[in-house]
């Protein structure tokens, strides 16, 4: 746009990450599961699914018993505390409590506690824990954070927007440290919902494949420790260069048919990063494995990347661990940075025969040797939510 | 598939037009007491006369599209509609990618979530349910997502710009107002709508159990502020004490959770404060403040 005065936003350091996923209790297990092509999908055992069409998902079978979580009954909070344990084992948080923020994305919050609250014998505290922002406040208490505690409710795009919001807090010098990310727990509430919408596949998840027939849900939590570039701790994982969120304004539960909102989010995020599509070396796609999402997303990526769309590696991790909703974008951001650091891009599990309408440079069959420095991560969610992150990996 | 038409590269305000700060152009308030701050009683607790919840009716909006929409979705639409009407801004003026939408709620998703869980409990007893009549069907599931409330607003008004959704009480609305000022100051939008919606009646029994978390009376509300580029820079901080406007909004409106700071803004503007103004909000022990100095 002529006369534009937008300035490149200050990059933000991503110092360390923590995660709990269907692959295990830390980031190492997450990364190892991705690059070894492990399948994190299994039969759901923690709650009844017998009456549902589909009873499989990326369920975490065992959570490490943590002293901090001993009295916590909310599954979502348990996941967050487990991810925080991993994060804290990798990096110390050193800042005044008032200068530490917690910004988390979620699609469901503590909603499983609502099921408990409404069951016979349900207690008042279950109802309070069911508020979508309760897990974020529980994590803030665990971390001793007394700065802003924000819960981003942008459905399955929430994790990306949470990282972006965290970056804004740092750029504005509101805080010195942000613990940002996303989480969601599998529960009957959401399984029944997606099952009723016929969004879940009875087969395996096959993002961008000719035979794709739907998604499977997963549960996870992913966190990153963020600081300003001038903070004493040198960046260990990478940088967040740009982010943007945009509304479709077209449908409450389906993406815009032309992907307008997603395209805007991608272009604005690149703009904030001071980069162009020519700088993108890898795309972590939302790639749910549904007919509509994958086609629209591929269209958007081809429009944005232009001729380079045939040569920029693209993957989706949802074939490996399912769609982890609020956690998805945070985990995908971590994956982007790990790919750049380790020199390998994980494959899209379940993708065997790419659908021609989803033609991109998909990573199929096995991990690809590549060391992407600049990555783009895309996310979509109910309510017409779209978000994009532009990330920069740093050498080991 | 053909590409979308007229996709803007970025809604950047040109350098010549860009102002250093922001301004609150308009604020609209709908509450269980009526429309506008003039409908608020002097003392909400006294006016409630022992009622725990002061409800706000389902807006009568026309259109097939709204047939399945929840009351809380319609309240969001009604608040934006009222804002445009009162400030004499046309729908065309806000349509498109140059308008940001920031939505906040502490618990308006409770109604749809409650209905969804209740419907699950209605499944046959042999499947672990109670065999009661279902109250929410398949198509209601998307409406359990908080983002669908803002999604309906975005659809209705054609809002395709920067988008944010925060979950929380009054402090979260301060955060959303701050985000709106950031977007405006960075030139990422030309105007920003900050919308809050709170409903309580549909899951009143849960709020009755959680009395320690929220005050009384609980007053259903929907409120919206329009922010535009202006001359005043903002300060965003964490004050130890609430502002006089926060206390006044609480006294006059009752407990409105995320709507409270917008009600406070409206009260401040009613006093004639169009320039320097500050609002604060507290939720779960955290207080945030935003000041147009």
Could you please describe the fold and organization of this structure?
- The complex is a heterodimer of chains A (396) and B (293).
- Chain A is an alpha/beta fold.
- Chain A has one domain (12-393): Peroxisomal Thiolase, Chain A, domain 1 (3-Layer(aba) Sandwich).
- Helix content of chain A is 30%, strand content 20%.
- In chain A, a hairpin with a 3-residue loop joins β14 (374-381) and β15 (385-393).
- In chain A, α6 (158-171) crosses α11 (328-342) and α8 (260-273) crosses α9 (291-305).
- The two termini of chain A are 38 Å apart.
- By secondary structure, chain B is α/β, with parallel strands linked by helices.
- Chain B contains nine helices and eleven strands.
- In chain B, a hairpin with a 2-residue loop joins β1 and β2.
- Chains A and B meet through α3, α4, β5, α6 and α7 of A and α4, α5, β5 and α6 of B.
- β5 of chain A pairs antiparallel with β5 of chain B, so a sheet runs across the interface.
Keywords:
heterodimer; A: 396 residues; alpha/beta; Peroxisomal Thiolase, Chain A, domain 1; eleven-stranded mixed β-sheet; two-stranded antiparallel ribbon; 11 helices; 30% helix; 20% strand; B: 293 residues; six-stranded mixed β-sheet; three-stranded antiparallel β-sheet; 22% strand; globular; disordered N terminus
| Uncertain residue ranges of chain B | 1-17
- The helicity of chain A comes to 25-40%
Radius of gyration of chain B: 20 Å
Overall pLDDT level of chain A = 95
State the CATH class of chain B: Alpha Beta
Uncertain segments of chain A of ≥5 residues (pLDDT<50)? Answer: 1-5
In CATH, the homologous superfamily of chain A goes by the name Thiolase/Chalcone synthase
Classify the helix fraction of chain B into a percent range. Answer: 25-40%
How does the major sheet of chain B shape up?
6 strands, mixed
Order of helices and strands of chain A: EHEEHEHHHEHEHEEHEHEHHEEEEE
What is the annotated CATH architecture of chain A?
3-Layer(aba) Sandwich
